[in-house]
TrEMBL record:
Domain Circularly permuted ATP-grasp type per the UniProt entry, residue ranges: 76-457
Protein name, entry field: Putative circularly permuted ATP-grasp superfamily protein
InterPro entries in the record: ATP-dep_Glu-Cys_Ligase-2, CP_ATPgrasp_2, UCP005522
A Pfam family hit: CP_ATPgrasp_2
Organism field: Tepidicella xavieri
Amino acid sequence: MSRPTFDEMYAAPDQVRAHYQNYARWLAEQPPEVMAHMREEAEVIFRRVGITFAVYGDKDEDGAGTERLIPFDLIPRIIPSHEWRQLEKGLIQRVHALNRFIHDIYHGQEIIRAGIVPREQIEGNAQFRPEMMGVDVPGGVYSHIAGIDIVRAPVPGGSGQAEYYVLEDNLRVPSGVSYMLEDRKMMMRLFPELFSQNRVAPVAHYPDLLLETLRAVSPAHTAEPTVVVLTPGMYNSAYFEHAFLAQQMGVELVEGQDLFVKDGFVYMRTTRGPKRIDVIYRRVDDDFLDPLAFRPDSTLGCAGLLDAYRKGNVTLCNAIGTGVADDKSIYPYVPQMIEFYLGERPILQNVPTFMGRKPEDLKYILANLKDLVVKEVHGAGGYGMLVGPAATTAEVEAFRQAVQAKPEGYIAQPTLSLSTCPTYVAEGVAPRHIDLRPFVLSGKKVQMVPGGLTRVALKAGSLVVNSSQGGGTKDTWILEA
C-alpha cells in the first residue's frame, strides 16, 4: 500500500514551494555534467580531509574495520524562517524539560511520586546511575549538547499539509554536527553564487557557541576554565568529529591515558607538566569513563574521575547518567514532562507510541506488527528495529517472538511516511526520505545555530537515514526573512 508523502521542494510535480523557488530556478539552469563534476569534486575533497565514518561489523579483506565516506548530496534541504522559529521554540522547550527531568530523578523524584513515570522505568533502566543521586551539577544542566531527531510527515486526512514530530532525543554523546559544518563549507565552496542569491542563516559559529556553553558550566573556582575533548581514540566511528571540534574550539583533544586524578582534581599530562582540567567534553560512554566506578576493564577513561566529578572539581559534558532520559522507553513521557515541569503545552509533538510494557499496547503491537515500526528501547543507529511494511514474513515473526519474550524491551510506532527531498542518485534526481538533527546547547542559556544535520535515506523507499545503514547527508538552509 503506497502512503501519501510530503515533498519539501514540490507541492505538486510542476509546482515548486515558495521558499525553494530561487533555488529551483538556479538548478534548472545547471547542465547535468556540471552537477556530476561537482559531486565528484565534493567526494575527492571529503576523502582528502578525512571525513569518514567507521562502520563496526564491516571488515575489509585483512579483517580490519572499514571506513566509509558518508555520501553528501548537492541539493539542500530548505526550511523557511517562520517554520524554523517554531521548531526552535519547541526544541528549547523540550531540552529544558528533559534537563529538569534528569535533575529530578537524581534528586527529589517528584515525577515518580506524582505517578507520571513509573519508578521501575527509571531505576530499572540500564542508563540510570545511582552514583549520581544527590549530586549537584553546575546550573542543573545535564545534557549540554542534545541532538534531537525531527521528522516531517503528512497530516492524516489528505489535506496536503505536514507536521514536524520529534522522533528521538539524543542526550548522551550525540554526533553529526561536524558533518553539518562541513556540508555547509562544501556548498559554499562549490556554489558560492547560491549564498549571494539566498539569505541562508549561518552555522559556522557553532564551535564558538559550543565553547561558550562548555565554559559557562565550569566549576566556580576559575575565571579562565581549561576545556578538553575526551575521545575513545582514533578507532571510534566519530573520531573525525572529536578531532574536528577540538581543533575548531582551539582546545586539546585527549584520551583517558592523558589524564590523571590527584587530590580530587583532574589533570592533563603536558610537556610542561600537569595542567588542571575544568571541563571535559566527553565523547566516551558512561561505562568507560572511570574504571574504579564502572567497568574495571576500561582503558578509555580516567581512574578517579567520578570522585572528582562528585566533588564538583570538574564538569563533564554531558553529565553522567543523562542516558536514562533518551532511552526509547522514556520518550513517550516527554510531553507529560513538559507539562509537569514547565506548566506548558508541548510545542513539538511525539510520534504516537505504543509501549510493550502496557498490556493493551502489547496486544495492539502483536496484532499489527506488519504495519508498525518496532524498536528495542536500548537500540541505536538504526539497529534492533523492524520496519513492518518493508519486512519479510520471517522477520515479522522473529520480532513477534522477541516482543512476546520481553515486552518491556520494545516500543512501536505507526510507519510514518517521512518527508522527501529531491536527491542526486544513480538514475538522476529522485525523491528520498529525510530527517533533521538540530543541535541544542544548554549552558547559562539554551541556544542553537539555525539548522542542523539533514540525513537522507539513499535507497529508494527506505525510511532508515542512519549513516551506519548507508544514509547520506545534505546541507540544511534556514532562509532568513
